[in-house]
Write a structure and sequence with these properties.
heterodimer, A: six-stranded antiparallel beta sheet, B: alpha+beta, six-stranded mixed beta sheet, five-stranded mixed beta sheet
Amino acid sequence: MKKGKEKRNWSFIIVAVNILLITLLAVFFFIYNSYYQDNIQKQNLANIQNLNRSSLQLSEKFFENQQKELKNAAQYIIRKNFTVRDALDYLKDANADNASTFEIVGTDGLGYVAEVNERGEYDTVDYTSSDYREFMNIIKDAGANNVSRVGFVPEFTDGHTAVKSFGIQVTVPMRVMNEVSYFTLLSV
Amino acid sequence: MNLIVAGPWSDCKALEDAATDFNRQYPNCHVSYEYLQDFSDTLPKRLESGDEPVDMFLTGNIQKDSPLLPYAAELSSQGEQLELSNTFDGLMENARLQTKDEAEKELFYSIPLGAEVRGMFVNVTLLKSLGLSVPENRAELLEACRVLKENGYVPFQGNPGTFSQQLLYPYCCNLVANAEDYEAAYALIDSRDEQAASLFEEPMRLMYELADEEYYNYKYCETELNLFLDASNEGYARSFLNILETENGYEKKDDLGQVAFMPSVKSLEQLIQQTKEDYHSQIEYEFILAPVGEEGGYAYLSPGRAIAISNQTKNQAWCNRFVSFLLETEHNIKFCDTMGFVPNNKNAMTILSKEFDVPKERISQLGQVTFSYDFYSPLTDALMAVSKSNNPKYMEEQADGSMRMYSFDYYMEQLKKGLTGEAEQENE
């Protein structure tokens, strides 16, 4: 009898230890998993921050470059006292970037693309639709008081390609019938 | 897989919601909505260029004279890939090519996603301030107009280009579609008989009365009240909610309004609601069928915005699947509920009847008033001429130098000339 009781006690202890071990394993696994997940999340966040920082730097560089090109083009046009046609001829040849185009738009919302079509003419653009109200608020302000000041154009449907676009713009005076009129030079 | 649907609005919640639901069902296919400004001009350019192609686009009915026909895929040839069994025959009939060529009669290039309903927005707040309730028939409508005018309001307002047809075209169509002898009425109009104009004497007379009593006086509203100065949907919403342009931009004038009745289409409701929220307007309003009949209003179903598939898309099968999804009863009802359309569903008449509590005898649809010639233009031109009749520019000068409206018979004669084709011959 005594041996049987001893045997039962040992069985109980073994089972208890096993349960304890399994519980400890489970707890350890849970803690490790949480720690691991936490680390992964921190790493992901760090990666995202890095990516965002890189994208921002790239975007900044891109815009800086576009701004510089636009300013250079505007200064050249002003210095040479170009007409609209002269400016288009210059821009067509000067623009080496296939990803962007130049447009010259008057304060009435009508303008031209500095690209020649199959007929050898410059395509026209028309931003007079009321859909372009926000866009026109920028365009119609072209005047002597904001010459050479570069600004951004919020997302719009480009009148030439009909593709969602964004752009930067600058006011440029050009000769029209021996008088000076103000236009917006757009890099789209 | 990414599909692009191009449309004319800055956003389209109905389509975006449908795209989300579609993606839930087909996780590997994303549909996105793209707004094209100056849509009628930029869409053909985008479809032509092939740069950043568009897979589907929202459109009106594409017929032979549509500039979009060269870019739209013919849809009857899609067979079982396009599931159209739940659609409403009346709307689908209108989508088919209107042609005398038997070989082309079954072709179609766009599918209406729902039906427009014409009616009027009622400024309940303004009516209540004068002890008036929403009118339910012509007598109550005219009585409300009398009280409104006595209190210095112009009861009916809207741009003359669309006012009269939105108010009265359903009435006119019902006079044909639900005539005691529909075949006889149809034949009278289709044959361009001299008597055809007499069918529409009642709506013409009602419009004449509204102008004569100055219950509608668009010129006065433009010049004195600065309302409805442009025909855009945004302009309509602002005028209805008394949001006027000041030197600081648009501002809400008050929470009472100056417009009691504004004929329009139900789909304008989401813009009106958005404008109301944006400007914190407290004006309560309702959309009802214009109660121009003795017993009440008339409902008329005409195709709302349709969807077409670009014939340049490389994803025809997926486009078919998305369009079929949009036309499934459950999804179409949800889409149309957001858009303010009646669903393009075989139960459309029942849905309409329940929503507006209108008996089926006062409902008509486009298919019942489609004739062998352009019936819509001469009728709506005549109604529009009557609506403008109290503008001094369109009045008759009298011997004493005063200006007077032309007689009712004068306008009926214009209608008769339009429907018989005599006006076209005179213009040639």
